[in-house]
Task: inverse folding
């Protein structure tokens, strides 16, 4: 029949809640930025096994990582253009590698978002506790407090949280760049740094060692995909803004990584227990005065805030997965403030579990982190190769080669990391990824079955009216009962009032019947006597005898004027509705009699 | 119109859940029985201030208390006959002393039921921790564990709990009687008992001291009213069984109290820190072997179980108060197992608070206990005097004199206890009683006002049908939508389908409209476009424009086959219903599409 279209007045609150380029960089890239604090150290730790000769390869290895970073950045720039609805590795795999591969990518992304929260929080707190050792006994509580804080900020809406994070990001990036510049200018370390320990059983520099250093250092690349996954969170023009943010991220990250690697070689820095490589670099470049503390403190803050990247990304990914029937639909449900409450909640709970299980120890969590990242990277690179081969724009062969090369690098990194870290928790990821894929396939099949039952996608037969009865439970003769019966009579031709009595309430039953007969409404009254003082069951049993196609039970309740008057409600309606819902097929209609309105 | 009466098959489960004489004694009188453990000690503590001369008055004071007990027992026997619906002090005051007095009585009973739980649990745990001092640091946790246990038993239904308590009661009463008999036969203490401390600053025995001893000892009388309050919990013939239980309680209690008092004088027992008077009596009568431990352990158990008396009494009283509109109606709501869940919950929470605040210390709580008891006793005695004067049966003058004498005794006891214990917590009761009365009066007035609005007690105008519209929110074209529209069409003449869209979902909106037009149901479709992605509010706003008297919103939802499939539900129905309930006057009809049925 007729279709009426009504449009509410346009409100740009939606756009106001979205991200600018700088805001997106702050909200979604903190993870990648913060990895400067542990990436170079991860390389140095491996190379130090081969002593000074090994450490001499810091810059070449970092250069390889920076090259990979460049490849990834350019690749994700293309991904953003090709998939403006977000999705990153998931979206690319879904379009070019098939459903199963896309679920693997989704699973790896989910695992990484969760691990990123746990790792960032743990690393931030670890940096804090190494600066202030007296806080060490409270590590896990500090971790959970930081997590609670980030969750609270994110439940208020992502744009607000982006604004919160811009200043710390600017301070952190500025501080790292000053360290790099000051260090490169300076001829000698500004303050004494620890001397290398006496070398014993030095390994020689081989290809495996370099690969391991490369793989370990790739921890610095986690998070570069976050922007591509969250394109819909940007302001219009969404794709353009997201692309600019992605390029800015790649450039900044490369400069910081290479600069720190150069300083490591220049000042012959080597891993020392209890002092991070970044803090040694800072000491060498700026001394141990105020500048040192500024860098340290902004690092602590940024690592803590890096957890926020996941809160920007995972709920959006989960919504997309829910839209595709791969996750429960509640993940697509937005609360009032444009927030995906269920996604945020899932992230908080799972990362809290990881933090508690690992006792807030970063080193237990980091190895797990890289595996999922590389799986996602590899899938999206391979997907992009397919993309180029399918669409064949100008220069597609070169682009495809670049992506193929990236895929090869990340795939080998994935294999190396999984093999070397399997016993140290890598098995958990190897178990979790297929499990998540199985869960998503179960969810998908269940929705398929439900959709089949609901005949989704087919045109159903037209709706036809049929015989119906409206049953109204009554227990007093009052205005509430009158209004309920009036509503019921307005609905259907057949209305039935039902009164449940108990044998030890004979006098009140007599009073009721007397009042009813005196009132004499034109409605049939059914009296049900229950020996067991039950409320809902007698009605449920009575309804089984009703033969009509549609049975409506109209429950009238008093709605108090003020919230504190709710204590006065008798809960009969709720008890009745619960029993009917569980044990009958009736449509339950609840009518609220507002005391204030009358 | 016609009235149909349907009666479900009689089930005697209700009677099976009720109490026999012995069961009632066990379930409702443990409080009174258990007070043997602290009543005599309360007398001795006061008299010991006057040294040996004071302690010589133990038997006379106990005799006075036993006489009062006799008066109370006979009085409550009459109360049971006069008030077979239960209520005790509350019922009597309500009938003969007016509403305000009855609320004071009810408040005092509520306070006592709560205090009885706290005192019994604390005293039981105190007895346990003095036997096993290593448990002392866990006092409060032991208290809460016992409370949780008793609550759990009571949530299963009172008859079951009565059966649980019969054996411990028999063992305890038997053990006390054996102590009394053995002690009276024996010429010398069976084992050494502590010698009296050197007397200093002895007071002389005066009337005030004796009154104080009497008042303190009256703690032994707490609980004798519990049976009268819970007559409806007995099996038929309820009043006869309750009367027999009351008399049995009075007789047993008197014998135990007098026997122990006689032994206290015989063996010159005096209060000693850390050793209860009852355990000294037991040592003197049975020695310090197995018998001693049996008595001690059954005392511990019984004190803990005495808390159960309140769980038998308070929920029944609360139901009665709710029926009379003095408490929220939920207190009259029985759960499946014939249990008043809200009354049980109230009792558990308030007594847990008392235990936590007092740190599980019995001595902080006991003084508060007696005040409320005596207020209730006094009111019910005075009420009975009025009862006799009104009905004037044979020998009414003697009965009225007995009740009047009892009232005088309990009233003076109330005044003495309040005066002597005001600073030690008595003020709390002096504040709480009027506060409870005020709350109950507020509840009563609120229900009066609600009843007035609902025109309770007046015959309302007959219900008349008026114009109505059934609004069906739709978001797919499917069998669910078809069934919802068919149900709506069966109901009313005017049916309206409403589809809420968001501007960034243009393609899915287009698909929906296409499918709808292809389907072409004979129903008007209203499209609401909301820029802010809200679910419920656009519909609420739309409904404000509907001019019909009755607006029904029919929400169709998929009900999963199995409970774990609930994770797949999208919660749209719940979100919609909440928004409509809060912000519109529409009748909310929720229709469940059961996947299993189709």
Result:
């Amino acid at each position: 029949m007729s279709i009426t279209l009504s449009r509410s007045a346009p409100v740009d609150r939606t756009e106001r809640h979205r991200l600018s380029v700088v805001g997106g960089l702050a909200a979604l890239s903190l993870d990648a930025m913060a990895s400067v604090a542990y990436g170079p150290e991860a390389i140095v730790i491996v190379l130090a096994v081969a002593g000074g000769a090994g450490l001499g390869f810091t810059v070449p290895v970092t250069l390889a990582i920076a090259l990979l970073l460049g490849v990834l950045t350019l690749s994700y720039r293309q991904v953003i253009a090709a998939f403006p609805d977000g999705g990153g590795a998931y979206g690319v795999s879904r379009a070019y590698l098939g459903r199963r591969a896309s679920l693997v990518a989704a699973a790896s992304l989910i695992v990484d978002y969760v691990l990123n929260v746990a790792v960032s929080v743990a690393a931030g707190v670890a940096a804090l506790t190494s600066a202030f050792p007296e806080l060490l006994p409270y590590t896990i509580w500090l971790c959970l407090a930081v997590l609670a804080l980030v969750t609270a900020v994110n439940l208020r809406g992502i744009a607000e949280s982006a604004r919160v994070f811009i200043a710390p990001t600017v301070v952190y990036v500025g501080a790292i760049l000053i360290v790099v510049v000051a260090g490169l200018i300076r001829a000698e370390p500004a303050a004494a740094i620890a001397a290398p320990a006496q070398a014993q059983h030095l390994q020689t520099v081989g290809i495996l060692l370099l690969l391991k250093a490369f793989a370990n250092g790739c921890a610095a690349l986690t998070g570069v995909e976050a922007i591509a996954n969250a394109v819909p969170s940007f302001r219009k023009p969404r794709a353009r803004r997201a692309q600019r943010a992605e390029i800015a991220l790649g450039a900044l990250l490369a400069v910081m990584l290479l600069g720190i690697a150069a300083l490591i070689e220049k000042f012959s820095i080597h891993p020392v227990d209890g002092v991070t490589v970044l803090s040694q670099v800072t000491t060498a470049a700026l001394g141990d005065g105020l500048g040192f503390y500024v860098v340290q403190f902004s690092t602590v803050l940024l690592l803590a805030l890096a957890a926020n990247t996941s809160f920007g990304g995972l709920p959006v990914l989960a919504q997309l997965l829910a839209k595709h029937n791969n996750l429960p639909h509640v993940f697509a449900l937005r609360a009032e403030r444009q927030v995906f409450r269920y996604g945020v909640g899932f992230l908080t709970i799972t990362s809290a579990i990881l933090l508690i299980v690992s006792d807030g120890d970063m080193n237990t969590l980091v190895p797990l982190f890289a595996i999922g990242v590389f799986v996602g990277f590899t899938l999206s690179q391979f997907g992009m190769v397919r993309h180029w081969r399918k669409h064949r724009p100008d220069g597609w062969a070169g682009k495809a080669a670049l992506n193929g090369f990236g895929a090869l690098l990340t795939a080998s990194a994935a294999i190396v990391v999984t093999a070397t870290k399997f016993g140290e928790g890598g098995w958990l990821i190897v178990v979790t990824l297929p499990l998540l894929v199985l869960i998503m396939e179960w969810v998908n099949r269940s929705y398929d079955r439900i959709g089949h039952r609901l005949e989704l996608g087919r045109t159903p037969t037209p709706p036809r009216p049929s015989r119906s009865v409206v049953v109204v439970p009554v227990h007093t003769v009052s205005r509430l009962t009158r209004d309920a019966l009036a509503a019921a009579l307005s609905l259907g031709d057949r209305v039935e009032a039902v009164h449940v009595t108990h044998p030890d309430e004979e006098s009140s039953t007599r009073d009721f019947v007397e009042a009813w007969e005196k009132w004499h409404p034109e409605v049939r009254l059914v009296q049900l006597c229950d020996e067991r003082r039950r409320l809902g069951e007698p009605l449920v049993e009575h309804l089984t005898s009703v033969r009509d196609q549609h049975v409506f039970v109209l429950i009238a309740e008093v709605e108090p004027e003020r919230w504190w008057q709710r204590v006065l409600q008798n809960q009969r309606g709720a008890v009745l509705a619960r029993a009917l819902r569980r044990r009958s097929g009736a449509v339950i209609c609840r009518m609220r009699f507002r005391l204030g309105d009358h």
